[in-house]
Amino acid sequence: MKKKMFQSCYVLLGITMLLFSICSGNAIAADTIKMGVVGAHSGDLASYGIPTIKAAELVIKKFNGTGGILGKKIELLVEDDQCKTEIATNAATKLLTNKVNVVLGHICSGPCKAALGIYKSENVIAMSPSATNTELTKSGNYPNFFRTIAPDDAQAKTQIDFALNVLKAKKIAIVHDKGDYGKGLAEYAKAFLEKDSRGKLVLYEGITPGAVDYSAIINKVKRSKAEVLIYGGFHPEASKLVQLMRKKRMKTIFLSDDGVKDDTFIKIAGKYAEGVYATGPKDTSKNKMAVAAIEAHRKAYGSDPGAFFLNAYAAATALMEGIKKAGSLDYNAISKTLRSEYFETPLGKISFNKDGDAIGVGFAVFQVQNGVYVELK
Question: For burial by CB atoms within 10 Å, which of 225, 230, 295, 310 has the most?
Answer without folding.
Answer: 230
